[in-house]
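Can't paste images in this forum, so I'm doing it all in text. The chain is below; anyone willing to post the predicted structure tokens underneath?
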Amino acid sequence: MTRTRTRPGRRVRNLGLTAVAAALLTSLVVAPSGAADTPPRTGFEISEGERWTSPDEESALLAAVDRHGDRVSVDRVGTTPRGRPLRLVTIGGARPGALTVLLVCSQHGDEPAAREACLTVIRDLAYASDPATRALLDRTRILVLPTANPDGFAAGTRGNSDGEDVNRDHLALRTPEARALAAVLRDRAPQVVADLHEYAATPPYYEKDLTVLWPRTPAAAGVRGAAERLVENRLRPAVRGAGYTVGLYGEWNDPVTGARIKQTAGDGQERILRNLAGVKHAVAVLVESRADPVDAAERARPALAQRRRVSSQRAAIEALFDAADRERAGLAAVTARSRAAGAGNRGPLYLGGADDRAPRADDVPAAPPCGYRLTAAAYARVHDELALHGVTSRADGDGVYVPLRQPARNLVPLLLDPRAAYHLVNGQADTAC
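Text version of the structure:
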């Protein structure tokens, strides 16, 4: 992979990384110009950060890696309202039982740095020839949605072409972008999900190069602790070691003492990917790079800021790969236990809340239902969405019954209980277990 660039004046300490991470941090050896099967470069790289990679350049790069060999496949998993393709890149994972890691890049179209980082990650993994990276890709399946909102990127807007915020649609699934991602989560069942964004700093309280966070909804209790440990014990130290400052997303800190002042974002609402991926049993991580300039040099030359934004995202992705490789057995075990708990109908249910505040009484049903009954008309309105979420049901008289005893147990009340903030339809709770 292309070497991560650090901010001027920062020292990079030795992380003691695995051989895999060391290989990923080593510059890719590019064949001489004109050589057969030369690794492609992004428009961002060609321009040295002066401009973002165009959609046509992205298509050419993905076509090149798809042709390069059987290590990579590129599949169209959806289509945007404007007819642009939603592409999923699969790299490696040849070994049975391989750990699956999903990168979701730039859901917000005006946050392009993650997209650039993901495109170079795809290229570098596809063309890597060192034994450590090949071994990593044998035991790890890496999925990348490099442009999760192509219409928004083309327009430079946060939302898609219909004005919808894709990252507020992972429960309702109104947008084709969120629907495509829901199918990937259902069909590929990744154990690790990284949602990559950008944020605007508020000096001097909230101005780290990167901010990170885990799922905060208590409905993700099966994996939430593992995600927090991954962030605190692996990602934050590794990113600092790569020369970047890193904080928690949404948390303002005193610039002198570091004490928390307040939280302005990063709640537990389940319609956000960071939270919903946890409800769907993935160890999910949010990464946000600082989008605004950090100093006079970056203000004078935007390309400097853009290179820093992209390289910090690369540092986070490399740290995630290293962490997943080190923790693969534990990550596989905790996600398997989370699914099994749902199938066994075990544990409390939550209709809302967050991990950093005590749940309200109406967040936790006093008598958890056995399932929900839907009328035929109600089911007709949501059966596609239930299917995309992987929720199973059965015929029940002239309607449908959705049992809680299934892997999607913690998700079902969020979709069907009238007390849940973002429910899709009013189901009738069945408490006669």
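Residues 1-19, 25-35 have pLDDT under 50 and may be disordered. Residues 101 and 308 are 24 Å apart (CA to CA).
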